[in-house]
Amino acid sequence: MDLKKQHDEDRAEVAARFPGPDYREILALLHRLLQPARYLEIGVNTGKSFALAKSPTRAVGVDPEPRVTRIDNPNANLVKATSDAFFGELDRVRTNVTFDLVFIDGLHTFEQTLRDLQNAERYSHPGTLICIDDIYPLHARAAQRQRDSIFWTGDVWKILPILHTYRPDLRIGVVPCVTSGLLLIAGVNPRSTRLAEAEDQYVAEYMDVPFTTAAHDQALGMLPHVPNTAAAVTAFLETAGLVTAP
Description:
By secondary structure, this protein is an alpha/beta fold.
């Protein structure tokens, strides 16, 4: 198969399916509205989204193999490590640091994404917003656990029904944006252990669940949607109590 041709076709389909701002534009809006003192990004890759964290925000990017060539924010720090190792080091030094805005775009498996969410939540506070990428697979091939295409989301979409079942206390919004949607999570609780306690159960339940359009549509229907507009995203933050309406 011609991967580049397939990728070009995928990009065209994504653009047609998700009109409006792309995920980096949404992230830029979140930075402007929230003005986070501390920002954490799991899965930095080339650093395009990480670059949205401008001074004076203190930004930490975590990636075992980053491809970042330039960082302009003097308060930004790039950590070359897996997310598990990064959080393990935070635990070891017993830091009391918390993050105001978190973007998770790491290893594209549902269990690792939920582990990153659990760990990020432990270093959060009630006003923290956590964002997760890759919730809209374009097709079954993109949703495979092993990468077989340029456009690849893995099986991260499975976190949708899991969060619906195990974390109904969270305030969640699903934004249908390029390239693969964005999940907004507010109302976090750094003391929650619900996901950790249920990990064996939900991993066993969902590990072998295949991607189908019907299964994904059902998962999407479990959670509130936020229209892909700046006004709707702002309204979500206002309703969650993260920003004050003008």
